[in-house]
């Protein structure tokens, strides 16, 4: 990929609605500050320090505002404004395409909380990781938010009691881009928390669903559908295998959640119903056409969609399962889809409305209960 050409996401950041969101949130100030500090960088190493510092600043600002703002969109659009500036930057020193790409990758990790998945070395704590996604479907409505991202920002740093210990939540965000998943972003972010000296006690991934309920995904599929991502790119076919030791060959067709789904349904009440989704789409052994199974896959079938479909949320759930299996960890790890969240349709220039604000707050609050229930009900070891 050309590290100097603007992406479709970065081009959208120049539209009026994203610019207004940045102005109103205060995140617009990030661009001139970043530009000034980049201009002072004398070599690639110093540029990397500048990029990392400003990425961390975006993340810190987003999670520090979570109770007051409750909006994932300023962070999303500010990151894109900075990455667009970084692509067009002409430094005073030679900078190869590979070095610029590395700087862009550094910005992504630092501003998505991937560097901030750090827990205190305290055996009395339970380490809980929660991840969300960027907004998507922005060609249809550029004002969109993603409640999974909102919840991840809100939950970062929260604590609750479970199993006689204090559970500490750390969060991260993932992009809606096939190329990042192909390139191993999920594994770089999450694998250290399955294999390190102080591994996570639960890893719960979140995404925005398409219904008016929460859905606990029982299975994920080793298959990518044909829907475009935020860069309008498509990548249909089998999920590219991650570079992980200990994985079976060929990879399993299905990944399975280890969240205590029934307990979550019983304990995490709220405005929205919580549904246990055991549906899959498969090609049965010996058949040629896909069929939908409401009660899970049949032996020897080929995966075509998990409960959440065949887009990036399904792939994140599947890759998280592979990480758990490769590490041999028996911990709660699974995927939750939130109710849909849409801005009001009356005025396309309006960035929010009372119904949108109410839905976003209610979804976030119920996700707090879902995460706590998943950890409290799991037989942690």
Structure description:
With 381 residues, the protein is α/β, with parallel strands linked by helices. The chain has two domains: 8-111, no CATH class; 120-377, 3-Layer(aba) Sandwich (Aminopeptidase), CATH 3.40.630.20. The chain has helices spanning 8-12, 16-25, 30-39, 44-64, 73-88, 97-111, 147-155, 178-182, 185-190, 192-195, 261-267, 312-327, 354-377, and strands spanning 125-133, 159-162, 165-174, 202-208, 214-217, 219-221, 223-224, 237-238, 254-256, 274-277, 280-283, 291-293, 302-305, 333-338. The strands form four sheets. Strands 2-3-1-4-14-5-10 form a seven-stranded mixed beta sheet, with helices on both faces. Strands 12-11-13 form a three-stranded antiparallel beta sheet, with no helix packed on it. A two-stranded antiparallel ribbon has the order 6-9. Helix 3 runs parallel beside helix 5, helix 4 runs parallel beside helix 6 (97-111) and helix 5 (73-88) packs antiparallel against helix 6. The radius of gyration is 20 Å and the shape is globular. The termini are far apart. 46% of the residues are buried. The model has no long low-confidence stretch (mean pLDDT 94).
């Amino acid at each position: 990929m050309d590290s100097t050409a603007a992406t479709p996401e970065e081009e959208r950041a120049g539209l009026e609605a994203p610019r207004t969101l940045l102005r109103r949130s205060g995140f617009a100030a990030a661009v001139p500050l970043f530009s000034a500090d980049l201009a002072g960088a004398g070599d690639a190493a110093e540029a990397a320090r500048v990029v990392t510092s400003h990425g961390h600043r975006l993340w810190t600002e987003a999670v520090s505002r979570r109770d007051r703002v409750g909006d994932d969109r300023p962070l999303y659009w500010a990151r894109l404004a900075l990455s667009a500036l970084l692509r067009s930057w002409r430094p005073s020193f030679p900078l190869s395409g590979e070095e610029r790409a590395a700087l862009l990758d550094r910005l992504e990790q630092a501003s998505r909380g991937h560097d901030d998945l750090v827990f205190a070395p305290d055996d009395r704590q339970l380490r809980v990781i929660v991840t969300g996604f960027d907004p998507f479907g922005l060609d249809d409505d550029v004002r969109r938010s993603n409640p999974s991202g909102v919840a991840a920002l809100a939950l970062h740093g929260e604590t609750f009691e479970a199993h006689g210990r204090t559970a500490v939540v750390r969060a991260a965000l993932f992009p809606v881009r096939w190329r990042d998943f192909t390139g191993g972003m999920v594994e770089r972010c999450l694998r250290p928390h399955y294999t390190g000296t102080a591994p996570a006690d639960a890893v719960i991934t979140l995404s925005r669903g398409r219904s008016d309920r929460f859905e606990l995904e029982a299975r994920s599929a080793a298959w990518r559908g044909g829907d475009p991502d935020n860069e309008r790119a498509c990548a249909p076919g089998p999920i590219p295998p991650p570079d992980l030791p200990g994985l079976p060959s060929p990879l399993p067709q299905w990944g399975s959640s280890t969240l205590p789904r029934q307990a979550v349904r019983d304990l995490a009440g709220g405005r929205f119903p919580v549904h246990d989704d055991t549906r899959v789409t498969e090609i049965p052994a010996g058949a040629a056409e896909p069929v939908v199974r409401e009660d899970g896959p049949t032996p020897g079938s080929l995966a075509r969609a998990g409960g959440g479909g065949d887009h990036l949320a399904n792939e994140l759930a599947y890759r998280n399962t592979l990480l758990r299996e490769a590490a041999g960890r028996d911990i709660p790890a699974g995927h939750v889809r939130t109710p849909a969240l849409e801005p009001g349709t009356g005025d396309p220039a309006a960035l929010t409305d009372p119904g949108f604000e109410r839905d976003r707050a209610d979804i976030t609050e119920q996700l707090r209960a879902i995460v706590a229930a998943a950890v409290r009900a799991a037989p942690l070891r």
